[in-house]
Amino acid sequence: GQQLNQSPQSMFIQEGEDVSMNCTSSSIFNTWLWYKQDPGEGPVLLIALYKAGELTSNGRLTAQFGITRKDSFLNISASIPSDVGIYFCAGQLQAGNMLTFGGGTRLMVKP
Amino acid sequence: DAGVTQSPTHLIKTRGQHVTLRCSPISGHKSVSWYQQVLGQGPQFIFQYYEKEERGRGNFPDRFSARQFPNYSSELNVNALLLGDSALYLCASSFDGGSNQPQHFGDGTRLSIL
Fold first, then answer.
1. Mean pLDDT over all residues of chain B?
2. Closest chain B residue to A34 measured between Cα atoms?
């Protein structure tokens, strides 16, 4: 089945640094989403992207939908300790249908 | 407004037993999806329901079944539990099945099989 390759698997950065993570697929998706999951909780939606080439921001977060429809990236600027968690990309072939998730990027921030 | 609510939050079962997990979607949402998240991995799609009809099924055995009720809440049933069924089971809801309305997740049910 479809798989999403998410990298890096983990990152350990200093507070204030910028972060970049990406997601690639062997198949096309028509929607890309980025979620953050904290321990003991479900994934929380950060950004949703619906058009190839779209660049969308949510505070210090910026995500882009790759022009080929096979990739997406998420940037976090000026990281803070509460950014710690696992970030997941998810692709959706058709609106409203199943999500295919990447393996996650674990972000650790050193104060 | 309340988000997606799931019950129970934690559950311990033994091999061979069956389990029923419950999910209430966000008010106004008509579509519910179920995902299994094994420790250290991303969620894997199990089922999607919209207006009480199954819309999609992932690559899971027939021991897994689900249904959606007239009030749009949903149950996930797993029979003949195996050790490998130990996971976080997540429910997600969305407004409907055909628009650009993203899925929002509950905090899941942590199922442990002994």
1. 94
2. B102
Q: Calculate the alpha carbon distances from A8 to A31, A91, B14, B81 in Å.
A: 21, 17, 36, 34
Of B4, B58, B104, nearest to A98 by CB-CB distance is: B58
Task: Give yes or no for B100 touching A (CB within 8 A).
Answer: yes
Cβ atoms A90, A2 nearer than 8 A: no
Per the structure block, which two tokens stand in for A84?
Answer: 């710690």
Q: Are the CB atoms for A20 and A74 separated by under 8 Å?
A: yes
Is there a contact between A99 and B98 if contact means CB atoms under 8 Å apart? no
Q: Give the tens place of pLDDT for each residue, A36-62.
A: 999 999 999 999 999 999 999 999 999
Contact at CB, A96 and B94, closer than 8 angstroms: yes
pLDDT at A97 over 90: no
Q: Is the pLDDT of residue A1 over 60?
A: no
Q: Is the dihedral of CA B82, A6, A91, A47 positive or negative?
A: positive
- Using CA atoms, how far apart are residues B6 and B22, in angstroms rounded to an integer? 6
Decide: A91 and A3 in contact? Cβ < 8 Å: no
Identify the pLDDT of residue A3.
77
The predicted-structure confidence for B88-110, as pLDDT tens digits, reads as follows 999 999 987 566 778 999 999 99
Interior/surface letters B82-95, b for 16+ CB within 10 angstroms, e for the rest: eeebbbbbbbbbbb
